[in-house]
Each structure stands twice: as C-alpha cells, then as structure tokens.
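Reading group handout, session on sequence-to-structure problems. Before we discuss, look at one worked example. The prompt was deliberately terse, the way you'd type it at a terminal:

> structure Isoprenylcysteine carboxyl methyltransferase family protein

The input record follows.
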Amino acid sequence: MFFYVFFVILVTQRMVELIIANRNEKWMKEKGAVEYGTSHYRLMVGIHSAFFLTLLLEAGLFGERLNEYWPWLMAAFVLTQMGRVWVITSLGRFWNTKIIVLRDANVIAKGPYKYIKHPNYLIVTLELIIIPLIFNAYWTLFLFAILNQFILAIRIPLEEKALMNETDYQKVNLSKQNFIPLQKKEKS
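And the output record:
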C-alpha cells in the first residue's frame, strides 16, 4: 500500500511541475524566448514516462518490498525534493522541463546555481537511484540510471550551447563545476 501512495504522490508532483513548466514556457515565448532540443525532448519524456511504468510494474506487480534502509532512503528522497523546490524557486519563471532561453537574459546565479551548473539534473539523477532503491526495484534502477545518463549526455551540451549563444552564461558560469565528473569542462 505504501508504494501506491508514494507513487500517486510522485506522479501528482510531476503533473504539477508540468503545469508550472507550461505556464513558464508561455510567458517566456511571449517575451521572445527560443526553444532548443525539441527532438531529444520527446525522447527524454519517453524515458521518464517509461521510468514510472517500469517502477510500477517492478515494485507494484512483484509486490512491495521495502529496502531495509528505507527510512534513510526516504530521508534522502525528501532532501532531493527540497532541492527540487529550491531549483524551481531559484529559477522562478525561467524554470522549465524544456530548453527555453530568453535572448540576452542574465543567467540566474543564485540558490543551487550559485554552486553548480545543473543542479536539477543532479537531483533527477539522485531520484532515479533513490526511488527504485526504496522499493528494491533493481532492474528499474539499473536501466534508468543508464538511460538518464544517455539523455543528459545529449541535453547538457545542448543546453550549455544554447545558454552560451543567447545569454551571459559563459561569464557567470566560468568557475563552476559540472556535476558529472567525467564531463570535460570547456575551456574559454
């Protein structure tokens, strides 16, 4: 039963975020913002939708089996959700699930963006590890940890390029670290 309550809360949260993203997208495009990466966005949505379906099948169909460390994992999950809220509130109307860039905008450099370049992607990566671990859904964990890194390998460079082309991103983010250790930091 715990799994299904958790699952409904998680899906509801994502639906609310899509409403926020759509409202922000409309506002930004009215201001002349440009969207990048429309082709990979469908793939990303597919991966995230498949995550929920796979989690539902593995953790729901095969029975709820909470990890023996689930209280610690739930605490870690709550921390990621606090991070998610911090990201969304820090970006305000500029937050989106898509790569939408307002030309000549000043890049947000507050909140978690003060410390690393892509905190939202770090949070999503942690969630895709923590959530399956809570329910011992190891196939879901393995599959989507890999798929997420695949889509981020496409998305992050595209987002960096879009921000470099349209904003003061290079000036603001020169000294920050990428959250993916293997990703090379571009030289200016």
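Points for discussion. First: The chain has one domain: 2-97+106-173. Second: Confidence is low (pLDDT under 50) at residues 179-188.
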